[in-house]
Amino acid sequence: MSLFPAYSATTSSSIEAPQPPAPQENLSWLTNQSFIPFPSQPQQDASSDSSGPEDHKPRPSSSRKHKHKKAKKKHRKRKRSSSSSSPEVVVEPVPAVNISEQEFYTDVAALRIYLTVETLHRPACPKYRRGSFRVLGGGAVAKPVPSQRRGSVRYFRREKKELNGGGSVGAEGLGERGVREREMELEKAARADESSGGWIEYLRFREEHPVHLDGYQNSKGELAIVERGLREHPDDPKLLELYLSGIVKVYPTDEVLELIQKMIAKDNTNFLLWEALIDNKQLSMAQCIVPNVLKLYEKSVRSLFMAKRSDEVMLKLFKKCALFCRQAGLWEMFFGLVELNIGMNISSSFAGGKSLFSSPEHFNQLIEYEELVLKSGLPMNEIWLRVEKLRNAFHFLPFRGPNMCSDPQRMVLHEDIVGFVYPLINKDYAFDLVILILKLMKYPFESVAFESCGSFFQPESYEEDHSEQLLPLFLDVTRNRKHDQIILNLIKELNTPPSFVNTNLAFESYLELLRQVLIASAEYFSDEKNIILLLLYLKLERILVVFDRISGHLTEPRKKATRSRVKNLLKKSKYQNDLNFYIEYGLIEYEMDGLESNCLNIFDTSVRVFCAQDDLLADNDLYSLVLKSVELLLKENRKSQAIYLLTKLALNPKQINFTCSDAISDPTKLLALQKFNDRVTRALPVDDQVEILLLPQYFTHSPLINTLKAYLYYHALVKSKAETTRKLEGFLFHFNDRSNPRQTFIREQLFTIFLTIADFRLDEFTNTCFLAIVDRVLHEFPANLTAIRLCAFSESLTWFQLRTILGKHLTTKSVLLLVTTARVRSLYSTQEDQQSAGTYKRRTLNLLAHTLRRDSPLRQNALLWRLYLRELFDQPAGNALEQCRKTLYLALEACPFNKAVYLDGAFFAPQELSQLLDLLLEKQLRIHAIPEELEILRDETGVEEGSLS
Known about the structure:
By secondary structure, the protein is mostly helical. It is built from 38 helices and two strands.
């Protein structure tokens, strides 16, 4: 029974017979003050009275007249329907009860005022236009403007179809009918084509003009095109790559693996099929189990070695397998593979027969640190995390001894790894193998141009997972040193053991191992390769000096120890008179004590000894030394001294003096410039005839590069910026063959020279001109660290300019340097801008969220996920732990085999520790300690303390 009679069951149209009046004792609700009934009236009178006041209202305006007519018609229709549906229902009159003087009434009539909604007048309602929107790293994409104004479409389906190019107007002005006709033409041409180019063009057109709004349906249609192309050209590798990348978007992982396995059963000698099978297996959260993945590696290596015997294929599989072991925490197996490969393909008596890749079972330092952690009283998740990192830092080498080890996983036998390593057919790949091993051991190479030399050097999407890749920034003498501390903090923050970075315990043992590998490898090779490996050793020493200087530990004993190591190396080398060694020695002195110390003295002495020779035709190393000193002088704003050195280098090298800064006359400058020009003219035809570039040439300064650098530096110092730019553009146009690896390498060196000139003459370059240069460099060479550094740390560019330019060519290094830039700008912001720290925090989070989106090529990079977890954890929001938990599982889905993500998750999402341990055990990743063992050890430590007390 309703409280109000207007909504009572007696007035409902669903009642077929009238209800008898309620007894008097049931009418007590009528005495409620909230209800005073009206006297009974006929239905027509009530309706006429209710509409009476409306009749005396002024006539509505012409703009609202139509709406009032519609409302009146609907009201009359409802009245007729209600009266016709229940004509026999009689409402019992209820006597009026005067409860209070104020009159109450029940609204039973549908007043017209309730049929309208009051809205704001037109100027007060803003108009939101979907104009141009900007994507991170891209330009403004304008919304297609219709030719005439049309009505609104629900959910903007028409606009969405136009943006995707699949609606009435395509990207090229093609209608829907035109797109279908064009597809038919392309398919007909592809069937008639004898190569796979027609099918690839057809696929590209379909990608640019999607038919459906659903991405899954578009991917399915594109896959059907590739399948038709494969039926016509079953052995085409490009179509096979497109097919292997397309089935991942359409089918689940288990079906993808089944499809690839069926293809391998027909052809088990195809490397692309094996690679796709391994990648889909180890990148799937449900399928990635370490022993199963390792079995796939062993099976693929055996099948491909017996069928192809290709050294490049064997090296690529070795790199993928060793990288998987490293990221899964199987460091003992990683170094077991390295040792077996070196002994099989380089030398069986490597390092003089010393056992470099083995360690004892117990370390007293490790036991002491573990006892401190167990006695600390920390929560169990923190105790487990610290003990796990400690053991990972100490126990990275396999144990080989007469007795059994307490941890069986530390024992790596040859029977366990012999199926993963096969001998090289061509022993000339030995140097490539050494460079590959150094890369896997996280050695920081100054330039990664050598990655284009062989297919096995090309980085995987998940390979750059270590923070040591930023260390080459410290090798650039033209850098701004005020950023060194923040860069090093980021490196230490993301660093994981084992490593030679001094933020971890036991870093000395890993550093010593890396040094011995470099020296032992250099002893095996001779001539140019020996010098390259020793120079890599000296570059590592220079990075360690920068570590000590930034952290404030660069004391005199440390300087003396560094000098003694460098001098001993030079004494043992049979190429000790090479000027490249003294370049690195002088730069080490420069990092220790600056330019006024022994740096210039070393340069001056080595040049005098070199110029005392009778034959100075082979002066390429002399050019390298003088050019490096010129860069140091320009960094110290000694322009006149740099001009003097370059002038003497061109006219009379025997008169070079690094302490002299005499003024040079204009005729002498023109004469020196002409000398450099003649040298360039003689060097250009020599390199035009060379089309190959061997791996050692990526690590040396070629005569052409040194000649071009000397000429362009001198031209920039004595001529205008416009003339220098024209010269550079001419050289870039000369080396324009992108298919020639040598010309590609020279182009990158020319772009680096261009950036260096723009750096020391920055006041003459506008921001637009500078950004255009950086954009050109990164378009061709996205991993060029010089371009990324100069752009990221430019103080004249806004954050949005940096994000736009670097966002076009996102790489792991560019993202890391953008995060570093955000921290630098937040640190050096003025006191007036109190919200700058929060602003840059949000910008950093937005950058990482965009970088790790679903369709990003960097989504499988574990280092960026770990950085994202840290940034989320440090934000002031109250739900940081919940966001970290969600992000952690996204990271594990993208990188299920990377142990570092699990370790970070134990710290930034401690509530998920039990689930993380279950996942670690399920995936069979390397675990050095389990919480149950640590609880027992903690209790035993507590008992011992009680007995001692």
